[in-house]
Amino acid sequence: MHLFWRKGFAATSISDLTAAMGIGSPSLYAAFGSKEALYAEALRHYRAQFEGRVWGNFAAASTARGAVEALLMDTASALTAVCAPEAPRGCMVTLSAVGGEGQAELGACVRAARALGFETVVERLDRAAAAGELGAAVDIPALARFVMTVQGGMSLQARDGASRAELEAVARLAMAGWDARTGG
Length: 184
Description:
Helix 8 runs antiparallel to helix 9. This protein has one domain: Tetracycline Repressor, domain 2 (Orthogonal Bundle), CATH 1.10.357. The protein contains nine helices and no strands.
């Protein structure tokens, strides 16, 4: 997972993988079938390991504003302080270029993972609108795309070395924009 996360699919060789896993290529192919299948498994493992750190407080928040703020603040934390010190910074799913590397099936898998975040935010905002928490004039898909764009940009900034404090400042600015746009 860390190799794919750090180097991407195309730049990670079978030799890199077998060295990291301490196995020969026949064992890798016997266990996973292909490099593509191993990458898909690495993505599943990544999501299982880190999804709760980013989305747990979002799901538990009582308001849409609280959910979005939790998402962005928890993103700042997760992107800069992952469990293992050798882990790359930034989000493996967000930063994945698979699909543009000639791997259409894996590209679809990564796009679906990214789309799930957008859909989760849209669903939460729809519930907020139905409860009267957001005004009828709020463009929910645009607001959800804004949130996901900020989160994705935070991932790029983390990869390039931004600190947790710097990313939290971005989250606070995004929430000021939320307040100005939604009256929240």
